[in-house]
Amino acid sequence: MEYAQVNTTVQLVVLAIFIGTYILIFTEKMHRTTASLLGAVLMMLVGKYFGILTPEDIIHMIEFEVIFLLAGMMMIVAVLMPTGFFEFLAIKSVKLAKGNPWKMMIILGIVTAVLSMFVDNVTTVLLMVPITVMVANTLRISAVPLLLVEALLSNVGGVGTLVGDPPNVMIAAATGFTFMDFIVHLMPIVIVALFFSLYTLKYLYRDYISRIPENVEDVMKINEYEMIKDPKTMKRTVAILLFTIFLFIIHHKIGLEPFEVAMLGGILAIVVNRADPHKVLLEIEWSTLFFFAGLFIVVGTVDKVGILAMIAEEITSFVHGNYILATILILWISAIASAIVDNIPFTAAMIPVVKHMGELGVDVNPIWWALAIGAGFGGNGTPIGSSAGVIVIGLSEKYGHPITFREWLHKGTPVMIVSCIIGSIALLLFTEYFY
Fold it and tell me: Whose CA is closest to 208, among 122, 289, 60, 104?
């Protein structure tokens, strides 16, 4: 990026808008999309007043690859959602567990984690939570442990692929890492982290899983196939989703960008199923996409005035050429910060910092993977650390099984720490693998 020649006053004004925007997002005094767009508008006005931003600068700040990728995957889900596919998966999972709470935790958790690898984790929990509550009510047990397991494992699972977690999408757009790069570098860590996360939760919920529900037979009587409302559309859309995943795997070999693959999958889902585009487009999380657009402008302006380059210089100076230290430091800073601030805005702010470290001669490949691990796993530290966590907290209250802040900290923080330790060990033991 070409930096604007500005004085300290301009930098302070821009920094004040940036901090104010993030405070509004963090405290939820204002909807995060509104806060993001307000910050973007203020940055544009300041940029025009001081002559540091042009309309072309603003357009270039928005990572349209991220927005189109998310939109394409949302289109596929919007077509698949009414078919009953996700309800079928949830009921089938519980029946496989035969009502055993520990087995239900494993199966529902793994189903959520796997779905989160290929469908963004916000959409995954939106689909899983109502069904989980229905099953818990039928069994007359608390849904809180099951909902918390789903929320935590959706964040862990989402780290494993390019499309599983918004921070990964943003990192891929910034670096050019392919779908297979994420699979090769992060999926082994995610699998180990899932295993240890489940057993951490098994210990923390040892009292809950020791009691077998009394109404298991009621759930076993539910016919999961009756959940499927439109089998033809379901089969076609699942086939398109699998085809899209296949294209993600080979996209770098056939010259397609990830966002092009996602948009192709989304359009195919509409065309093949003759879906009403108005209904499909209404189901897209437009507020999320505009949140990203506003955030890119806010962070882009901070970068434009040279503040993030200064931060990168300070970090580089602090580690004194010890790049392993820099990698582990970034992982834990990312994890702790993502537990306090939603991991999406944090990642948006960190990407230019890592880029600047690269410009200063640091080999940043392992640092990118550390950022992905820290932002993804760190989101489990608190209920506000990830978008999926915020959604689950809200839905748990709506359905009468509220997850308290204290409950989340008691279960989520240990999972975050365990996962980040696993990530740190992997980066230390297999350092050369991440270069």
Answer: 104
Q: Has residue 431 been placed in a domain? A: no
Query: For residues 136 and 290, what is the distance between their CA atoms, to the nearest angstrom?
Result: 35
The 3-class secondary structure across 167-215, one letter per residue, is HHHHHHHHHCCCHHHHHHHHHHHHHHHHHHHHHHHHHHCHHHHCCCCCC
DSSP classification of residue 52: -
Query: Terminal CA-to-CA distance of the chain, rounded, Å?
Result: 24
Q: Name the amino acid, one letter, at 353.
A: V
Say if residue 319's pLDDT is above 80: no
pTM, two decimals, is 0.77
Answer yes or no: is 192 within a domain. Answer: yes
Both tokens of residue 295?
């955030």
List, for residues 142-176, the tens digit of each pLDDT value.
889 999 999 999 999 999 999 888 889 889 989 98
In a domain, 407, yes or no: no
> Structure tokens of 330?
């970034």
DSSP H or E run through 161: none
| Contact indicator for 368, 350 with CB cutoff of 8 Å | no
Q: Please, where are the H alpha helices in 51-100?
A: 55-61, 64-80, 85-97
Tell me how many domains the chain contains: 1
pLDDT of residue 4: 64
Gap between the Cα atoms of 182 and 178, Å rounded: 7
Lowest-confidence region among 159-168, 180-189, 203-212, 285-294: 285-294
Alpha helices in 305-342 (DSSP H): 307-319, 323-340
Nearest to 253 by CA among 173, 178, 183: 178
Residue 23 lies in a domain: no
- Give the sign of the dihedral formed by CA 261, CA 266, CA 269, CA 271: negative
Nearest residue to 163 (alpha-carbon basis) of 68, 89, 294, 235: 68
Q: What is the dihedral of CA 52, 55, 59, 61, to 10 degrees?
A: 10
| Residues of the domain holding 161 | 65-283
How much is the CA Rg of the chain, to the nearest whole Å? 22
Tokens of 252: 């770098």
Residue 266 and residue 71 in contact, taking contact as beta carbons nearer than 8 Å: yes
At 379, which helix (H) or strand (E)?
none
